[in-house]
Amino acid sequence: MFRTLLTTAAITLTLSATAASAEIRRVNIEALYEAEALIICNMLADEEGATSRGSVRNVDYFLYECRFDAPAMRNITVEVMPLLHVAQARPVCRDAARNRGGTWTGDWDGNGAFAPGTCTIRVPAG
To answer: 0.70 cut: is pTM over it?
Structure first.
C-alpha cells in the first residue's frame, strides 16, 4: 500500500513537471486518409519543435485532430532598425528571431524612417 502511494506520487510529480515545460497543441487537418493526416501532423510537430511525434483522431469526414507536445512559447516584441515596408521587415525580423532562438510571427510595426521598428517573435518560455 505504502509503495503504491509513493509510486503514484512520483508519477504525479513527473507529469506536473513535464506539463510545465510543454503544452499540448491541437490543430485540425483536412486529409483524405488517416495516414496522410498523420504525415501532415508530424510535419507540423517538427516545425513547432515538438518533444514527441504527433497523433491524429478522426473528428468528421476528411477532418482529423492533430495533437502533439510542443515546448511552451511566448511572444516578445524586439526593436530593430527603422522599417518602412514588409519587404524590408521580412529579412530583418526573421534574423532577429533566429538570433534569439525563435520564429517571427509575421507582425511588425514601422515607426517611420528615423525611429526604430518593432518585430513580434515567438521564443521559448523560460
So the answer is: no
